Amino acid sequence: MKALSLVLFAVFVLQDTDGSVHVTPVGNFTTRKVGEDFTAFCKFTEGTKQPKWQYDGGDIPEGVAISNSELNVKLEITSVQFGNQGNYACSNDDGKDFIHLYVFQEPEFNGLRTNQTLTFGRENEQIACQVTSVNQTYYEWKKDGNAITRSNVKFRIENGEYLEIKEVDESNRGEYECNAEVYIIDSKQAIVDIKPHRRKIQVDVVGGVPTITSSTMKYTDDASGAQDCRPFKVILLSTIVGLIVAL
To answer: Distance (Å, rounded) from C-alpha 61 to C-alpha 58?
Structure first.
C-alpha cells in the first residue's frame, strides 16, 4: 500500500502456557509516547513463588518503581522516555510472561499554515506540511476527504512534506489534510505500530476568474495582468466586413 521497504506485522512469540504468571497489558507489546506513564502488572497463581521483573534480561533500572500486593507485582514508570523502551519480563520458577514497551514522540508541525491562498494560473504552487520527529515519518495527503496519490497528474508530492500543484485552477480550492504517520519500528526494522497525526489546511484560489461580455472575453491573472481574446463570432464578423470593404 505504501512505497516502503518496511512491512507492518504482528509480533508472535511463544510464551509459557502453564498459567502461573500473567502480565497485563495483554499482548506482546504496547506503545507509549514520551511523557506518558506506563504501568504493568504481573499476576501469579496462589501457592507459587512471587515472581520478579527483569528489563532486557537484566535488573530493573533506576526510576522504575516495583511494588508488591497479594498475588500481584506492579511495575510503574512515570513520564516514559526513550531509554525506557525495551522488554519487561516477569517470571518465577513456574512460569514467565512479558511485555515489550515501544516509545515514540509526537511529531512537531513546523509553522503549519491552516489557511492558504493560491493564485489561479500559477505553476508549482506548494502546500507545506513539515514536521520534526525522531521516529520515522510517512506522509499522506487528502483533498476534501479523498486520497491524493503520486499518480495524480495535477499534483506532485515532494518528499511527502510538500504537496505541489502543477498549475492552479478553481478545482484546487477546498480542504486539504496532511497526515504525518509516525512509524514505530523494532530492532529488525519492521513496523509494529503506526500513529497518525492529522492537520487540516483550508485552501482558497484567487484571480483568474473568466468574465464574458458580448464582444470580449477577458482572462485576468494577478501574476501576468489582463489578456484579451475575442470570441470566434466577433473575429468572423470582423473578417467579413474587411472583405466587403476590400471589394
So the answer is: 9
Burial of 171 (0-12, 13-18, 19+ CB in 10 A): exposed
Domains along the sequence of the chain with CATH: 21-104 (2.60.40.10), 108-206 (2.60.40.10), 211-246 (no CATH)
Q: Which residues of 56-91 are buried (b: 16+ CB within 10 A; e: fewer)?
A: eeeebeeebeeeeeeeebebebeebeeebbeebbbb
d(CA 129, CA 131): 7
For residue 234, how many other CB atoms are within 10 A of its CB? 14
Which residue's entry shows cell 484560489? Answer: 205
Q: What is the pLDDT of residue 209?
A: 54
State the average pLDDT over residues 133-158: 91
The cell for 193 is: 505500530
| Rounded mean pLDDT, 57-82 | 93
Tally: H helices and E strands in the chain: 1, 22
- CA-based nearest residue to 134, from 163, 105, 158: 105
pLDDT in tens, 147-167: 999 889 999 988 788 999 999
Degrees (nearest 5) of the Cα angle 84, 85, 87?
110
**CA separation for the pair 161, 177 (Å, rounded):** 12
Of 103, 90, 89, 125, whose CA–CA distance to 201 is shortest?
125
Q: Pick the more confident residue, 36 or 242.
A: 36
